[in-house]
Amino acid sequence: MKQSHYDTIIIGAGPGGLSAAFDLSQQQSVLIIENDLWGGTCPNRGCDPKKMLYSAVETKQRQESLSGFGLTGNTTINWPELMAFKSAYTDSVPTNTLAGLSGSNITTVYGSAKFISETEISINDAVYSADNFIIATGQSPVIPNITGQQFLKTSTEFLSLKSLPEKMVFIGAGYVSIELANIAAAAGAEVHIIQHNNQILREFPTVYTNRLIDNLKNSGIHFHFDTTVTEVRKTDIGYQLLGDNELDLTIDLAISALGRHPNVDTLNLPVTGVEADSHGIVVDNHLTTSNEHIYAVGDVISRRQPKLTPVSTFEGHYVSNQLLSQSTHAISYPPIPVTVYASPQLSQVGISLEQAQRDPEHYEVRIQDTTKWYTFNRIKEPESSVTTIFDKSTHLLVGAVAYTTIAEELINYLTPLIANKTPKSAVDQLIFAYPTPASDLDYYL
Ligand SMILES: Cc1cc2nc3c(=O)[nH]c(=O)nc-3n(C[C@H](O)[C@H](O)[C@H](O)COP(=O)(O)OP(=O)(O)OC[C@H]3O[C@@H](n4cnc5c(N)ncnc54)[C@H](O)[C@@H]3O)c2cc1C
Ligand SMILES: NC(=O)c1ccc[n+]([C@@H]2O[C@H](COP(=O)([O-])OP(=O)(O)OC[C@H]3O[C@@H](n4cnc5c(N)ncnc54)[C@H](O)[C@@H]3O)[C@@H](O)[C@H]2O)c1
């Protein structure tokens, strides 16, 4: 029989809820509730499975780049085998997560939590109360309200596809669409991306997203810009997708990648006084909701920071520190690097390129074509570019964009320099293994 009162109850066992749970369990009684897969979106149906599929794509493309420079032969992606490789990892995530929670004396309940008062929730007809609650319920994919919406699938189904469709569509052109379309095209599918305006990845500078569009087109992806899908019909052989601009496509699979909405609808928030808007739960700069005993972390909150795993984890640690009275300061986010795992990768951190270009009095922008640099030439990258942005008064690095197959690494080298306000003179005092991407660091500063 589970106890019914806890110091803290956490709703949602993704990266945000879990990071808070493990911290709090050192000193408190903690109950964590999950209504789907223990571990949440990232390891089950987000970042991790996506990047396992991407492993084959990056290896295939690296081999293609070196074709004629010592490598011969074609590599093809075997989708069922690749999916089995992914599943071998994801299948054990829920069990391993539960085992970790039990090992830390954290009580777990499977089911959907619903508030019945400010201090109580019900799950599967049982009632639990707590001094404090943390809502960490994440987000779910948006499905557009169009005729035939029931025929649309999402990233979740894509990441478990047993066989690769011959012809498929992604609706939307954000992170999910671009990354999954890139994987599907490299694996051999005919891929179409339909976007209601003419922009992809709106958070990134157009000078780079335009280059990415060209690269994705070269790898066979078809873009339909300024086009809105209005109807999906089931046919004998698949689906028919209709829309404005004379859109009429017969396809095997359509994925809705129009963004994600916060999971708040079934929590019965009105009994708690917790406010939510269309972006999620409204919190102050201590991640407290409009009820002082209820906190919210991760993707479910309404904030301007990107909705990413390390941000959710950072917030989980922040709230647990507050609840353990180890800190009372307002949350302060370090620079947050973001990466689109396409071919090539596109990463950025800090002051955006567009902001810097609007304010040339304060910022110096250095755009470098790095294609011929040793690091990139060695792996025969077709094109690469790194932009660094400096504060003119301090000469410190304040922002960066990387467009290369190793952007994920470069951005992680540059981020600490921005966060720690490291001057070039301090980097000059370091010795890095040579020749590596890190030993180029000096050239970016
Ligand atoms: C396809 C895809 C790829 C991504 N790739 C990346 C990437 O490369 N890098 C990156 O940093 N981020 C990536 N993300 C984003 C990342 O997955 C999220 O930012 C992260 O999972 C958020 O963690 P969270 O704990 O806030 O929410 P989640 O991980 O979504 O966890 C919330 C949990 O709460 C549960 N829940 C919801 N409602 C209830 C309820 N009423 N009762 C009980 N439980 C409930 C849900 O089932 C879920 O398990 C990706 C996302 C997707 C969809
Ligand atoms: N590599 C990563 O870090 C990574 C990868 C995947 C997801 N994520 C996270 O998941 C979030 C969700 O990703 P996403 O791609 O689903 O959302 P998104 O917000 O990044 O992109 C949604 C896209 O759909 C378009 N759109 C919106 N309404 C439309 C309509 N009616 N018709 C056609 N297009 C429409 C938008 O213009 C945009 O291009 C991201 O913002 C990010 O926080 C991160």
Automatic annotation (TrEMBL):
FAD/NAD(P)-binding domain location? 6-316
Q: Where does NAD(+) bind?
A: G172, A173, G174, Y175, V176, S177, I178, E179, G259
Please give the PANTHER family that the UniProt record associates with this protein. GLUTATHIONE REDUCTASE (NADPH) (PTHR43014:SF5), MERCURIC REDUCTASE (PTHR43014)
Which named protein is this?
GshR protein
* Disulfide-bonded cysteines: C42-C47
Q: Which residues form the Pyridine nucleotide-disulphide oxidoreductase dimerisation domain?
A: 336-438
* Keyword Heme appears in the UniProt entry: no
Check the record and name the InterPro entries matching this protein.
Answer: FAD/NAD-bd_sf (IPR036188), FAD/NAD-binding_dom (IPR023753), FAD/NAD-linked_Rdtase_dimer_sf (IPR016156), Pyr_nuc-diS_OxRdtase (IPR001100), Pyr_nucl-diS_OxRdtase_dimer (IPR004099)
Q: Name one GO molecular function term.
A: oxidoreductase activity
Show the taxonomic lineage.
Answer: Bacteria, Bacillati, Bacillota, Bacilli, Lactobacillales
Q: Where does FAD bind?
A: K51, D299
Reported cofactor(s): FAD
State the superkingdom. Answer: Bacteria
Question: Per the similarity annotation, which family is this?
Answer: Belongs to the class-I pyridine nucleotide-disulfide oxidoreductase family.
Keywords of the record: FAD, Flavoprotein, NAD, Nucleotide-binding
Query: What does the note accompanying the cofactor annotation read?
Result: Binds 1 FAD per subunit.
Instruction: Write down the Pfam families for this protein, in alphabetical order.
Output: Pyr_redox_2, Pyr_redox_dim
